[in-house]
Specification:
alpha/beta, 8-stranded mixed beta sheet, two-stranded antiparallel sheet, globular, AB_hydrolase_fold, Hydrolase_4, Serine aminopeptidase S33 domain-containing protein, AB_hydrolase_1
Length: about 350
């Protein structure tokens, strides 16, 4: 299906100019609206282009925004002064789209990857009845018990955050080598100058940590329909975290799928045949739900969380055969395969 790509800008409540983009199917009316929440250091127009084009080709109107300091948006590079600012900016932009006359009767879905999964869950928490569902790809939504930073370390860093908030604290650079399996795709991502590949800043790291803790404490408050996807060989965010979300969420329509042997970058770093499988699963899940008329209808049980796809039965019994890393962790994100790289 043919689609049109558009770019625009908006100013947030703090006066910062933010980049926005959209992929619109060239049909009379899209199936539903999908709103992209990208990961830490990432951006929408390049890194998430594959997602936008595939979903638009499947008949969905797709909208993205680069967070303040990310991608083509203005602001200190990858500096998150307050995580709530990201959530509020996304909420304002997404709801402006939803209020447009041609979209008022359309179902509304969130799509979050990695840290964007946290953004999506917080958008749901901000207005629980507004969203019709969410696709969460390797989300950052809980800190594994195995990897929580020591309280003493957190206390020391907290005392420093107002003095040197933009200090680049983590002494490694990136997780590209650990997140993206396919070497060709990995180099394309590394050469994307819009992607932040420097050390995380002090306040940014603490904001991500606090957000993870807050989400972990409120996983049972999640009530929207969701589909969480995770690679079993992901050592950037822990598949156990997605299992915890699935187990604790109060949603009556919830589905999880674990992909044996796949890494963190399910939609952008795997071989082509794996990416085809992932997007087929995502569009199948959306297609089944995009015609929901009301929030109550979409909350009806869906086979108790087990959903039959063409190639696998989703099951919480799936287990990983990978070897666990012995690295250190921060903000719920694991230390990557090479010790030179950042855990962010």
């Amino acid at each position: 299906m043919a689609f049109e790509y558009q770019e625009d800008h908006m100013r947030n409540s703090r006066g910062t100019l933010l980049f926005t983009c959209r992929w619109l199917p060239l049909i009379s009316s899209p199936k539903a609206l999908v709103f992209l929440c990208h990961g830490y250091g990432m951006e929408c127009s390049g890194f998430m282009r594959e997602c936008g084009t595939r979903l638009a080709a499947a008949g969905y109107a797709v909208f993205g925004i680069d967070y303040e300091g990310h991608g083509r948006s203005k602001g200190a590079r990858c500096y998150i002064k307050k995580f709530g600012n990201i959530v509020n900016d996304c909420s304002n932009f997404f709801k402006t789209i939803c209020a447009q006359e041609e979209y008022r009767d359309k179902s509304r879905f969130l799509y979050g990857e990695s840290m964007g999964g946290a953004v999506a869950l917080l958008l749901h928490k901000k207005d629980p009845s507004f969203w019709n569902g969410a696709v969460l790809v390797a989300p950052m939504c809980k800190i594994s018990e195995k990897v929580k930073p020591h309280p003493v370390v957190v206390n020391i860093l907290t005392k420093m955050e107002e003095i040197i908030p933009k200090w680049k604290i983590v002494p490694t650079k990136d997780v590209i080598d650990s997140a993206f399996k396919d070497p060709i795709k990995r180099e394309v991502i590394r050469n994307n100058k819009l992607i932040y590949q420097d050390k995380p800043r002090l306040k940014t790291a603490l904001e991500m940590l606090r957000t993870s803790i807050s989400l972990e404490d409120g996983l049972n408050e999640v009530i929207l329909p969701f589909f969480v996807l995770h690679g079993e060989a992901d050592i950037v965010t822990d598949p156990e975290v997605s299992k915890a979300l699935y187990e604790k969420a109060s949603s009556k329509d919830k589905t999880i799928k674990l992909y044996p042997g796949m890494w963190h970058g399910l939609t952008s770093g795997e071989p082509d045949e794996n990416i085809e499988i992932v997007f087929a699963d995502i569009t199948a899940w959306l297609d089944k739900r995009c015609n929901a008329v009301t929030f109550e209808q979409i909350l009806r049980p869906s086979n108790q969380g087990f959903e039959k796809f063409d190639n696998v039965m989703v099951s919480m019994a799936a287990t990983s055969s990978r070897t666990q890393s012995n690295g250190t962790y921060l903000c719920g994100l694991k230390r990557p395969r090479t010790q030179r790289r950042s855990a962010m």
